[in-house]
Q: What sequence folds into this?
């Protein structure tokens, strides 16, 4: 199964990174809808689109406004945006208010609780995360593969979500700060390098892909990757346009 990374920054885009958005083209699955959504149209291969939102902060939902152009240029049978009720209500009331965006794209909103649900042959398990205003992580289980997406939270080996992601083939986890900025990570509800690697090691995942980097970090290594690899060797840095098989 192929994953394409469309956006890897948190907070706002910079010269090389759009904000959070990851796609599984063959399924039409999209994880978060940051500004990286502008790359989505050319990758669509089917006629359905399922967008799974972690929360309603703008760096994760602004790309939903791009659905207007996508629905005009591509013939889609169904577009569904999945999220908890409060997230979907905030989007409907604020992002698509007439004062901010005049024409609402045609899509369905599907609210869920924290109970598992299915889309096609995929079992999806939402996971509440600790973050100001709340956030949701996801575990995706197919018959032969598994994936977890965890963003906008404080990584800690004793966090509740760690048990739920145990053994996944690929963990995609935010890493907004370097280790030396741990105080800022805790203050803002985000993660730093070594803490994420410790989570991956404890959860015994197959691979770790780091994303959601501070846009103020403009180097090719925004978080100190070797510190992570010293703890969990199978760690990779995501970049915009990256394609990987899992």
A:
């Amino acid at each position: 199964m192929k994953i394409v990374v469309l956006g890897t920054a948190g907070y706002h885009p910079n010269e090389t990174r759009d904000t959070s958005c990851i796609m599984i083209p063959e399924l039409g699955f999209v994880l978060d809808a940051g500004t990286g959504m502008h790359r989505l149209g050319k990758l669509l291969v089917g006629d359905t689109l399922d967008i799974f939102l972690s929360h309603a902060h703008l760096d994760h939902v602004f790309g939903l406004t791009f659905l207007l152009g996508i629905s005009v240029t591509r013939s889609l049978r169904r577009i569904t945006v999945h999220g908890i009720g409060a997230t979907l209500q905030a989007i409907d009331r604020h992002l698509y208010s007439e004062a901010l965006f005049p024409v609402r794209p045609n899509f369905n909103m599907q609210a869920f609780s924290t109970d598992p649900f299915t889309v096609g042959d995929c079992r999806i398990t939402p996971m509440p995360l600790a973050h100001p205003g709340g956030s949701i992580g996801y575990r995706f289980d197919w018959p032969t593969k598994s994936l977890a997406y965890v963003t906008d939270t404080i990584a800690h080996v004793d966090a509740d979500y760690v048990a739920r992601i145990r053994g996944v083939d690929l963990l995609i986890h935010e890493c907004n700060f370097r280790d030396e900025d741990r105080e800022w990570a805790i203050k803002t509800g985000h993660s730093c390098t070594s803490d994420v690697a410790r989570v991956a090691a404890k959860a015994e995942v197959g691979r770790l892909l780091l994303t959601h980097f501070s846009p103020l970090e403009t180097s090719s290594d925004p978080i100190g990757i070797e510190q992570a690899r010293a703890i969990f060797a199978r760690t990779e840095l995501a970049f915009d346009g990256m394609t990987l098989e899992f």
